[in-house]
Here is the input.
Amino acid sequence: MSEPSLLSRERIVAPPGFNRWLVPPASIAIHLCIGSVYAWSIFNPPLTKVHGVVASAPEDWTLSEVVWVFTVAILCLGLAAAVAGKWLENVGPRKVGVVAACCWGGGFIVGGVGILTHQLWLLYLGYGVIGGVGLGLGYVSPVSTLIKWFPDRRGMATGMAIMGFGGGAMIAAPMKEWLLGVFFRAPEYLGTADQVQVVTEAGRRIAEVGGQMHEVLVIGAGEAAKLPGGLHDGVYIAGTGSSGAAETFFTLGVIYFVVMMIAAFAYRIPAPNWKPAGWNPDRATTSKRKMITANHVHVDQALKTPQFYLMWIVLCFNVTAGIGVIGVAKTMMKEIFGAALPDVVDTEFTTFYVLMISVFNMLGRFFWATISDYITRKVTFHVFFILGIMLYLSIPFCAQRVNASPGVVWLVYFYGATMIIFTMYGGGFATIPAYLADVFGTRYVGGIHGRLLTAWSTAGVLGPLAITSLREHSRLNAITDLAAKVDPAAFQAKFGAGVDHLAELVAQKTVTIGNLMEIAPPGTANPSGNLYNSTMILMAVLLGLALIANFMIKPVHPDHHLDEDDAPADDRPLDAPGDLVDNVDGSDEDVDEVAATAEA
Here is the structure.
């Protein structure tokens, strides 16, 4: 028989005496790479200024457009994870890991080309679709592999991998910010606003340079201070310079590809009939606590139960409430507190905020999953929703107070409240597999979990859609209200057009909340901090619905329990304890066939 291919499952069966602790570093490395998706908000500012660089130009993408790239990536993650389980068991984690590396790294490269050519569809295709598939494949392969190696410590095994995914942004956030600074190039500077004659045509700012008319951007001292390189306020030529986004995408694509390839080739799977030394699965006992079943429900039968759909709602709404905030975390922090506390909330502060989101997301996965062993999974999700409702409803109050009387105390409260929210966001992911095992049994929990991850895909659409749509509605209302307070003569002098052209000026990004505040009457409150109030109220409502769904979850009716005599041959439990260990994820693959192939 021919030699198995380098990527085949047979080539990665571990020899006798192999140290299983050599496998977790590879699994964690892959999850750290794909977990960088949670630092997406770092890219929001440069992607909305690819053409203008120092400010958004009319041709630049809007925040709503670039946030949807993150949404598509999460959507494809959930869909890929839902269908990848069976393929993983057939081909092994090495091949899946290699494909994940090609998709995730390649997605960055394709996305970088889209940024360089300013083709939004390429960014969606690269980072969103191709990268999203890489996310899904990279997500499932470490979890399945570690479960096989640690049947005696299953919770710890999955916790290690899932914590890695939650902690990916902890490394990615500062690295992305540093790379963006390295590749940033300021556009051509023409001089201060009073040195350059600028006119407004169809909402755009135009200036004559060398006998030719060029589109320009006019920024104030406050905007210039937020940019790298110590830039001056004044007039810059649009289309020159670089925000550094494309170059950063190319660099990260190469880095992630190399790291994930090395990790994929480090994968090993246990030999058939392998079990940890000194571990006897026959001694394992089934918990008799309420809501923990000793029976099993087949993956197809689980879809016929109300419990599956109630848990789908529980996961979907819990993720929706957190993922929308994660997608705009850096922007949200700047808009709520940037104007009130400009000396505190600078670029370094917001970058560190994104990093801390990753830290608490990661810690929450371990903390809440552990707590759920003591207070039960159902009560844990009750805590998520009741506490989450209170925290989300408190954020609008916090934003209003910091605008009325700027103080660090409100920033500290907001910081703490959102960090607790993110622990519960991560905790939901870590706790839901055990919740599924409690309700449906352990044999098919891997397949049921994969199906349930479609809730993650749905939440990846609902969360960003809600937060960007409501924010945009609030932003337009705020601009209209501010423009009504501004002196018409000052408006004409600032923008080169009258207030009657407001809609056109807003559409071309010439008028923003920031530059309206520069000519607003003294004492005018900056409305930026209130842009997310309606979003926070909606998130609280969603958590309320999830609370009701969680309350309705009851034990599965016995009619849905698996009858061993009627189960398909491939679904019946294997006799040997070693066989049970090798098929702990519910795939129930024929061990004798795997052994025969490996020996060949």
Summary: The longest helix spans residues 408-440. The chain has four domains: 14-185+242-270, 189-237, 296-470+535-562, 564-600.
